[in-house]
Design a protein that fits this description.
Elements: H1 8-16, E1 18-23, H2 30-38, H3 46-49, E2 54-55, E3 64-65, E4 70-75, H4 89-95
Antiparallel strand pairs: 1-4, 2-3
The chain binds flavin mononucleotide.
Length: about 100
């Protein structure tokens, strides 16, 4: 899993050391995707704004999401910075421009 350093998600991951991946079994809800994929937890409460219903996980303390009921419960085993020099130049320039603030 790749998470940019400036994401709200990064701080949450560092604190919790675990996370869930919530997969829809039917058509994904466009409103949930829009809020969770484009808004930041720095600015809004995504659970509230997207109307997520949280359900306890079986093996970790981080909940899953009722609307997306295939829940993969994960623990962070290790983290490392991406090695930009290993990414093909065209992708690096397009996706990881170094003169742009990548926080959000
Ligand atoms: C389809 C899709 C895939 C995404 N994948 C990633 C990803 O792999 N890593 C990442 O850091 N951001 C990814 N993003 C961007 C974050 O979801 C987005 O910036 C979000 O607003 C971050 O919220 P946060 O600040 O609460 O962490 C993706 C967005 C979309 C729509």
């Amino acid at each position: 899993m790749y998470v940019r350093q400036g994401r709200f998600t990064k701080g949450q991951l560092d604190k919790a050391g675990e996370f869930t991946i919530s997969v829809p079994l039917e058509n994904p809800d466009p409103q949930i995707n829009k809020i969770c994929g484009w808004q930041s937890g720095f600015n809004i409460d995504k659970v509230k704004e997207a109307g997520l219903e949280l359900v306890d996980a079986d093996t970790i303390n981080t909940p899953g999401v009722k609307q997306y009921p295939l829940t993969i419960e994960c623990k962070v085993l290790y983290a490392q910075d991406q090695d930009l020099s290993k990414i093909p130049e065209d992708i690096r320039e397009k996706t990881y421009p170094q003169d742009v603030d990548g926080t959000y």
